[in-house]
Write a structure and sequence with these properties.
Length: about 450
């Protein structure tokens, strides 16, 4: 029996299953492998409860330390088109898995008390996500981590806007030393002051995501780069309150950084931008709303030849950019797969032509708001860019519907002036993703 077939057998287990006796005759080592495979593929709450309550043997198997369980209760329920489990069911489910290494909980289904009850007694977590929950308090999360978790590697509290101020100040230093990934995106009540313990003790940090944290100051970014820079590989920030010294500190202290995304760059100038020529390991760069960046500085950044590893580039609303800078990008970044030049007003077909001519591996091209762009360089795009999958021309009023429909006929997903998918289900394109025929593509 194949592993997938065994998973299907487990997903329908019940006390009356005639095959259950045969399954239980398998050696313990093999049954452990089967159960591990099943839970990694996604087992809904009721199936897991049934499995662990079937007999003492299976209950022992489910609790065995070698079963590395990954549970995402809410996502699993949606995947199986089930109703969200009630609190009692969810608590029984998690308590039946004392060796959980990964637990992901998204949404408001559990309140602060219930979340505390769920976390209590789990002592092997390496990856904890409690995201978009407006009820749970930072004190509750911190208390449970302090008591139970010694090996936490990843913590994701994205979208918990204003209730986490005490989370990091309450965490014991020993609970921070192994942290490698932290996601506080859209936690708007936080600032670099509350994050001081993380900067002090989390010296293994590789991934730090803080987009939407508007109160991150210049001094906070400087300290982050100085304290954590040697290990950081991915950094996402909201630069609304950050000046050039913050960007310079990143370029000077983060030698292995591969991904740098900053959403609000309006306070940066050419001085900060030019410092990025030192970051030769970057593969993904986002600098949005860089209103003060001149075309000359952007040209210099890419013409220096240090960013040839880039596969992702987003310069949305860097309004100073002109066609000559795109020429430098095209010549020096041939490996680009996703590019976004939305609302870069002065770009014309000549600038986009530089990208199409030189970046032959493009998968997605976003030309939103390019009002001077015409059909010219987009003709026969299916032959010129054989890897192109998505073309976005929202608010690009000089790009014709006939051209976009022709490209759609050749297999390219196209978005027209109104933000609708050409020939599709008229689904909106926003917030960095496009949904087409049930598939979500991020850019």
């Amino acid at each position: 029996m194949a592993a997938a077939d065994l998973h299907d057998e487990l997903s329908t287990l019940s006390l009356g299953n005639n095959d259950l006796s045969l399954l239980l005759e398998l050696p313990k080592e093999l049954l452990l492998r089967i159960v591990s495979y099943a839970v990694e593929r996604g087992v809904d709450p009721q199936t897991w409860n049934n499995l662990s309550l079937t007999c003492k043997y299976l209950r022992a198997i489910c609790k065995d330390a070698s079963v590395r369980v990954i549970l995402d209760p809410l996502a699993t329920c949606k995947k199986h088109q089930m109703s969200i489990p009630n609190t009692d069911c969810a608590l029984r489910w998690v308590r039946g898995c004392p060796h959980l290494e990964i637990l992901r909980l998204t949404g408001d289904e559990l309140d602060d008390y219930e979340m505390g009850e769920m976390l209590r007694g789990i002592s092997h977590l390496k990856d904890l996500e409690i995201s978009f929950n407006r009820s749970v308090l930072g004190t509750t999360i911190a208390e449970n981590i302090n008591v139970n978790q010694t090996n936490l590697r990843c913590l994701n509290v994205e979208g918990n806007a204003y209730n986490l101020q005490e989370l990091f100040t309450m965490l014991q230093p020993l609970r921070l030393v192994n942290l490698e990934e932290l996601n506080i995106t859209q936690c708007q009540g936080l600032s670099d002051i509350e994050l001081a313990p993380v900067l002090q003790y989390s010296k293994k940090m590789k991934v730090f995501r803080a987009d939407g944290v508007h109160q991150f100051s210049t001094s906070g970014v400087v300290r982050l780069a100085q304290e954590l820079g040697t290990t950081l590989t991915e950094l996402e920030l909201d630069g609304a309150e950050v000046l050039d010294p913050g960007l310079i500190a990143i370029s000077e202290n983060c030698p292995v950084l591969r991904k740098l995304w900053i959403s609000f760059c309006q306070l940066f100038t050419d001085i900060g931008l030019k410092s990025l020529t030192k970051m030769k390991n970057l593969t993904s760069l986002k600098l949005r709303k860089g209103f003060e960046f001149s075309n000359e500085a952007i040209h210099h950044l890419f013409n220096a030849g240090q960013l040839d590893n880039l596969t992702y580039l987003d310069l949305t609303e860097c309004t100073g950019i002109k066609n000559s800078a795109l020429a430098a990008i095209g010549m020096n970044c041939p490996n680009l797969k996703i590019v976004n030049f939305s609302w870069c007003w002065d770009l014309t077909e000549a600038g986009i032509e530089h990208i199409i001519e030189n970046c032959r591996e493009l998968y997605l091209l976003n030309c939103t708001g390019l009002k001077r762009l015409t059909d010219g360089p987009l003709q026969n795009l299916q032959r010129r860019l054989p890897e192109l999958h998505v073309l976005i021309c929202k608010n690009a009023n000089r790009v014709s519907d006939d051209l976009l429909y022709d490209l759609f006929q050749h297999g390219i997903i196209c978005v027209n002036y109104y933000g609708d998918v050409v020939g599709g289900e008229q689904e909106e394109v926003e917030h960095g993703s496009i949904t087409y025929k049930g598939l979500q593509l991020h850019y």
